[in-house]
Amino acid sequence: MDDVASQFITANETVIQLSVALLLGALIGIERGWVAREQRPGERVAGVRTHALVGLLGGIAALLSAEVSQWSFPLIFLAVTGISLVAWRARMTESRDFSITGLIGLLLTFCFGAIAVAIDLALATAGAVITAVILDNKREIHGLLNQLQSHELDAGLKLLLITAVMLPLLPDRGMGPGGVLNPYEIWWLVVMIASISFIGYFAIRVGGAEKGILFTGLFAGLSSSTALTLHFSRQSRQVSELGPMLAAGILFACGTMFPRILLYAAVVSPSLLPDLLLPIAVMGLALYVPALMLWWTQRRKLKVDRPQLTQNPLELRAALLFGALLALIMVLGEWLREWLGEAGIYLLAASSGVADVDAITLSLTRMSLERIDADTAVVGIVIAAAVNNLVKAGLAAGFGTHQLARHVAAPMGVSLLVGLLLAWWGAVG
Fold first, then answer.
1. Which residues have a Cβ under 8 Å from the Cβ of 232 and sit 6 or more positions away?
2. Residues 6+ apart with CB under 8 A from 63
3. pTM greater than 0.85 (yes/no)
4. CA-to-CA distance for 191 and 320, rounded, in angstroms?
5. Residue 358: pLDDT above 90?
6. What keywords appear on the UniProt entry (predicted)?
7. Where are the domains of the chain?
8. HSE (CB half, 13 Å, CA atoms) of 407?
């Protein structure tokens, strides 16, 4: 009785798998049929019915390979490929259409049918849906490709290079003084920083100036808040009446640094996040709130251009320099910790914050795992962030109008003082 029940269940599973193979083929066939809907019956090489049957054939081929001969699947696949090539060759002669996308889609349909039966239904379904989406978005994909600039393509390939090629090759062990240098972890941090900058660049690139200064300022903070501060400061001298709105953009960009800091802590050292959350969140709010108030009161006057994005969103040289900077800060941090204790860490944080917050933040969060306590890391990160925003306030005062400098300096000062007080209170408490 148990054998009969087992055979019945197996038979039902096979029927379901073959049905899914048929439906997945029909899904891709519907998309292909829609594209060629204006052609007369018989002019299409493969429509809904053909794709559905090819999906079912792939499932049957997988069954035959399991039950009859392992050669069944490759032989049937070669037969489908040969028949498809003959049909596409004949069609190509008439239409002069040399695209093989439809042929590849048909062969993928056969494979998805086999996967549904022999491997996994969810995997086959996901593959078929993704294939249908790609086939259906030909115009959009080609449009994005036409809009892509050469330096942006170069940046994307370099990001893949440092992520998929270089990262797995690096040793994952401590080296250098005190074993503070782990090449794999340092480069992983470089990849994270490069990815955030890359995303920020394209957020501005895709959104454009028409999304307003709120959008531009927020995402410029992912790419380069310093660059945006300089750009808007100079622009305030050209169009002085837009000073408050430009100041809002600068505050938005500088405020975005603080969610980035929390993100780094959450990824690198989650245990540091509870101590870091209050001072960093308050410092960010001290910039976001006045920025939102300025934006709300001045939004009808918005006529500002976004920053010019002609630079490469990811320079490999810059990535290498950032990795070297991370390594240097880690070594200096270890030496200063042994020599001066906490005071050495704070000195390093202040000097590093003049130029960059990301490197010192990642270094201190990494050191908090083993070499320094959480309070020291939190105070050091807050010092670096405060110094960095102080420098940007100086840039706004030096390159912008007095009006812009006034709108920027007050929130920056409040953010700096409140952050330092909360970090100190948390450390002594």
1. 246, 247, 249, 250, 304, 400, 404
2. 14, 18, 117, 118
3. no
4. 10
5. no
6. Membrane, Transmembrane, Transmembrane helix
7. 2-143, 150-428
8. 29
